[in-house]
Design brief:
This protein is mainly beta and about 220 residues long. The chain is built from 1 helix and 10 strands; from the N terminus they run αββββββββββ. It starts with a helix and ends with a strand.
Amino acid sequence: MNKILNVLFALLAIVTFPAQIQAQDETIIDKLPHQKKNFTIASHPLYHFNSGVRLDFEKRIKNTPSWIQLGISGNFLGKRNNENNYWTIASGDEFSYLRGGGLELNYKYFVNKKESLYFAGGGSLFHSNIEYMGDYWISYIEDGLVYQIIKYGKINQKINKLGINTYFGYQLPTPTFLFDMFVGLGYRHSFRNNDTAKLFDDSMISLGYTGLVFITGVRFGVKF
């Protein structure tokens, strides 16, 4: 009886093995063109409304629906020690000089077979170096007494902002062109080097904001 069962299992394996190979081949063949791409480069046009730029670089993790995303962003406005020109960005922040740069690292996972719907999450760091003209207090000693007066001049504020993100999005399943839109929630916490200067925290998109943020955006790019 055991010999008969062994023979039957052997025959079954011989019969089904070619079918398994064919199914694997069909799975590979049936992959959509965009699912064969392993890299993307994309920009965030909404960053321009806040006088910034951002580029994303993505890489597929092996042959899976998982991706790693690295975002590089920056702000470059005004000239150092310029007391005449002022810039105001969409957040309402006003200054005469701004240099900023940041990095964001996210893990991205497509949840459907077509690889168009995804969830993502990660963290970010952004540094801002700001100059603006305003009133500030100075102290001096005269005849053993300490006096404080208000002066008007250049004030410098440096801000480091840490963040965490979680969001979901939709990406068009096209072979080369990349269009992506997403929404989600995050948290930001800002650290400043000058406690007497402006906080720059009036809104969620402000350079020095601390608190919950609503995340949304679109991306345009290419796949290769």
